[in-house]
Amino acid sequence: MISQATPSHAAALAAIHVSSFPPCGAWGADAIAVQLALPGAFGLIDDRGGMLLGRIAGDEAEVLTLAVAPPVRRQGIATALLRATRAQVSACGVNALFLEVAIGNAAGLALYRREGFVEVGRRRRYYADSSDALVLRVNLL
User: Fold this and answer.
1) Contact at 8 Å (CB) between 102 and 125?
2) Are 54 and 61 in contact (CB under 8 A)?
3) Does the global pTM surpass 0.85?
4) Domain coverage including residue 13
5) Distance CA 68, CA 7 (A)
6) Where is 71: in which H helix or E strand?
7) Taking the chain (141 residues) in consecutive chunks of 10 residues, what is each chunk's mean pLDDT?
8) How many folded domains does the chain comprise?
């Protein structure tokens, strides 16, 4: 089940994130709590082991991070989190949703393309390993 995450969920969100990313890219509980406390920020947690952090700015929204714990991947959790995010931000009047994904993240790219995201930019050497990030967008209206 997906529910709204609050700063009180920071440790659970961080545990999912740490299990899903290399140590140099994982967010700790303090960083997640700070993000959730910012204006326009929101979080979703799936009790099966998934999480998403995002923020709304005007008529646009951004997925800051999306993670699913390795033992429960390929069960539709990431898709459910993305769809819940789309519904939530659409209800707030958001016209477009953005995210960044590592160019080598084949599973993530496949998911985002299935959900209608298209490439609108590239951030060169964006990640700690110097890999590029693709900037993706989906129109919501």
Assistant:
1) no
2) yes
3) yes
4) 2-139
5) 19
6) none
7) 95 96 86 94 97 97 97 97 98 97 95 97 92 97 83
8) 1
